[in-house]
């Protein structure tokens, strides 16, 4: 008799029910090996378009395509069983109109199997959030520092530092809540503003460079593992130096290849065992 233990994935409504009950722990993943390791520990995994910069060394997130994001997302879905998987909609795939956004998001869901999509935008994007949610696509809205707006923001700068900008971001957050977003990513916003939004909305807020009082936190996995070439952003913390481990292991491999100690005969096929060998 085989014992089959089914692990149920955390759903979007379950994530929403965490508000006020337990914090949402979330990170990014772009590939199967990372997603497999992250899955048992996290409530939500995001295939962030930050992969454009982290994984492809692009100067911004603007040039990654829907097909590229869908391929990364499908790999993450296939290699996980527990965490709720959300993907970033890439720049240009949703800003034109609610119907363009629906077509793109529906294609993304079909290609990857994710549970929902994240879109960056202020109150002007709220009708698009509503359009998708009404048609069965859960939306995580991303406000504050929006990397897809790097050109209009004049760089990756913290937001909500003046009363005027804080009020605008507050209204952006409330507009997406009203439109039916299941959660809000608050990126690079003043701490007090993130706290105020978290207190005033009924949906979970997930902070990155925001406030410890957000309902959850998200970071780019490479930032916490020492895989970004020694550059740790102010809002992150390095929990391990995996970069140093990789460098040490690869150095040893190269040395053994050059000295002829790798491969050994035990790594080869068709080698006859000598008498006395086990
Ligand atoms: O693209 C990304 O990784 C994000 C974050 C919120 C981490 O949007």
Automatic annotation (TrEMBL):
Cellular compartment(s): Cytoplasm
GO process annotations (BP): methylation; pantothenate biosynthetic process
Membership in a protein family: Belongs to the PanB family.
Pathway listed: Cofactor biosynthesis; (R)-pantothenate biosynthesis; (R)-pantoate from 3-methyl-2-oxobutanoate: step 1/2
EC number: 2.1.2.11
Physiological role: Catalyzes the reversible reaction in which hydroxymethyl group from 5,10-methylenetetrahydrofolate is transferred onto alpha-ketoisovalerate to form ketopantoate.
A family per Pfam: Pantoate_transf
Cofactor: Mg(2+)
GO CC terms: cytoplasm
One Gene Ontology MF term: methyltransferase activity
Location, primary (coarse class): cytoplasm
Catalytic activity: (6R)-5,10-methylene-5,6,7,8-tetrahydrofolate + 3-methyl-2-oxobutanoate + H2O = 2-dehydropantoate + (6S)-5,6,7,8-tetrahydrofolate
Entry keyword set: Cytoplasm, Magnesium, Metal-binding, Methyltransferase, Pantothenate biosynthesis, Transferase
Protein name as catalogued: 3-methyl-2-oxobutanoate hydroxymethyltransferase
Active site: 187 (proton acceptor)
Cofactor note (record): Binds 1 Mg(2+) ion per subunit.
Annotated binding of Mg(2+), by residue: 49, 88, 120
Matching HAMAP family: PanB
Top-rank taxon: Bacteria
Self-association and partners: Homodecamer; pentamer of dimers.
Gene name as annotated: panB
SUPFAM superfamilies the UniProt entry points to: Phosphoenolpyruvate/pyruvate domain
Binding site for 3-methyl-2-oxobutanoate: 49-50, 88, 118
InterPro entries found in the cross-reference section: Pantoate_hydroxy_MeTrfase, Pyrv/PenolPyrv_kinase-like_dom, Pyrv_kinase-like_dom_sf
